[in-house]
Amino acid sequence: MNAPIAFPDQSKPVPPYKHTPLFPLGKDETPYKKITAEGVRIEKVLGKDMLVVSREALRALSEAAFGDINHYLRPGHLKQLRAILEDGEASPNDKFVALDFLKNANIAAGGVLPMCQDTGTAIIMGKKGCNVITDGDDEAALSEGARDAYLRRNLRYSQVAPLSMYEEKNTANNMPAQCEIYAEGHDAYKFMFMAKGGGSANKSFLFQATPSVLTKDRLLAFLKEKILTLGTAACPPYHLAIVIGGTSAELCMKTVKLASARYLDALPTQGSPDGNAFRDVEMEKEIHEMTQSLGVGAQFGGKYFCHDVRVIRMPRHGASLPIGLGVSCSADRQVLGKITRDGVYLEELEHNPAQYLPEVEEALGGEVVKIDLNQPMKDILAAFSQHPIKTRVSMTGTMIVARDSAHAKLRKRLERGEPLPDYFKNHPVYYAGPAKTPDGYASGAFGPTTAGRMDSFVDQFQAAGGSMVMVAKGNRAPAVREACKKYGGFYLGSIGGAAANLAEHCIKKVEVLEYPELGMEAIWRIEVVDFPAFIIVDDKGNDFFKELNLG
């Protein structure tokens, strides 16, 4: 028979194998604090020292991590915000947003109000050394710790479970967590914990390009076009991550997420014939300068669309060129942890962000126009109509809060031939979903959600007399601009990423108005004082973001 043999000829010589890690990271320079020495011990197994880690040590580390990252930021991130205030090239709006973020960080560091109302999906990555022993239920222990943080703190439950293809229910504990555990290293168990909000997660993009893009001019032009599609809905300034290549599409995108968290900063800065991933620091500088020249700025025009840029180049199949983009937003929530023979450790975040605030607050953001929301809607619209786009406003009075699920229920009323409720016609609508309200507070963290998710409702609702003034974050579709021109409506951009500041200073009363079964997606009535926003789309068809090629 001429059939090939089932196995290759083992006598055929091959060179010795030299393993090159795909991600050869340098030394870990992270500052850690000790959480506990409980739950870890050393046992001899077959003559080897083995690190034995209890289930409770894993649970406690995870709970501490998700508590910290919803209230504290890394010192490096806070230094970048302060640098905006000191940059003579930063626009007044850049500085206004940066100052608001520093105020927000100071409030969140009190440990009561989280820095953002969207307290995120719990994401856990572990790297378990070969000399580490647990009871084998690591995913459950780590997930339980995350759950406990969400139950015990004033954090929002954002996860919905599919009961069928179209019916969903909030899990009421923010579970499930995304937990991935790898075998790597020897005598330690290392972790990265991340709380990933929906706004920034939605700005993760995979492009299946072709190798023809791999020239400098073509690649930079390609990336500029794609970076503009990020828009402002995920609360810039961003930590932007770009990955060129990857052995698979999914690894490309995982690398984007890790790079956005600065987890891969210690990669080498050049490649090799062995195929290791590396950082292209020259391209990082070029793209960062590109983002500064776009004019988008920190949400409302200027220089600071991005704090920084990471560009990772990876090996690839010769016929494929995956390119990934993603961001970490102003709620820059990740923390490293580790368990060693000496105990359980968590990265030390900044507990005193007040040191980054300017000693004397400057007047930032230009002239502010006061708007009384406790007047008839026709008078509210007339007040806005007197001012051009980009005007900063300060609103006091009643707003209605509604987002995706509530909009869907109101649309069903219209489809049944029923009118919109009067409250939706008489007051501005704020797209938001609050975190839990702490004892003694009028509101939990309560920042704006992404406006674009409600774009498809606007024309129908404005035709029915509702949604005449909308408040949210990020750019809108052209259909919203056209509806506002047709029906005389307005869209206002609020500062995304400053939810604790809004709750502490601006939101004075919160009550459920309708659909309480929707949880945080219920329709709420809120009373606000000096609520800050900018006119983005007006009743004349002007759109601030259209000028920046984002509309």
Question: Can you describe this structure?
Answer:
With 551 residues, this protein is of the alpha/beta class. The chain has helices spanning 55-69, 75-85, 92-108, 138-152, 198-201, 216-228, 249-260, 281-293, 377-385, 404-415, 422-426, 458-463, 478-487, 499-505, 544-547; strands at residues 32-36, 40-45, 48-53, 121-128, 132-133, 160-162, 168-170, 178-183, 189-196, 205-209, 238-246, 278-279, 306-316, 321-328, 334-340, 343-347, 368-372, 392-401, 429-430, 469-472, 490-493, 507-514, 523-537. The strands form five sheets. A six-stranded mixed sheet has the order 1-16-15-9-4-8. A five-stranded mixed sheet has the order 10-14-11-13-12, sandwiched between helices. The chain is globular and about 85 Å long. The mean pLDDT is 93.
What's the topology here?
Blueprint lengths: L31 E5 L3 E6 L2 E6 L1 H15 L5 H11 L6 H17 L12 E8 L3 E2 L4 H15 L7 E3 L5 E3 L7 E6 L5 E8 L1 H4 L3 E5 L6 H13 L9 E9 L2 H12 L17 E2 L1 H13 L12 E11 L4 E8 L5 E7 L2 E5 L20 E5 L4 H9 L6 E10 L2 H12 L6 H5 L2 E2 L27 H6 L5 E4 L5 H10 L2 E4 L5 H7 L1 E8 L8 E15 L6 H4 L4
Parallel strand pairs: 3-5, 4-8, 11-13, 17-18, 18-19, 19-20, 20-21
Antiparallel strand pairs: 1-16, 2-3, 4-9, 6-7, 9-15, 10-14, 11-14, 12-13, 15-16, 18-23, 21-23, 22-23
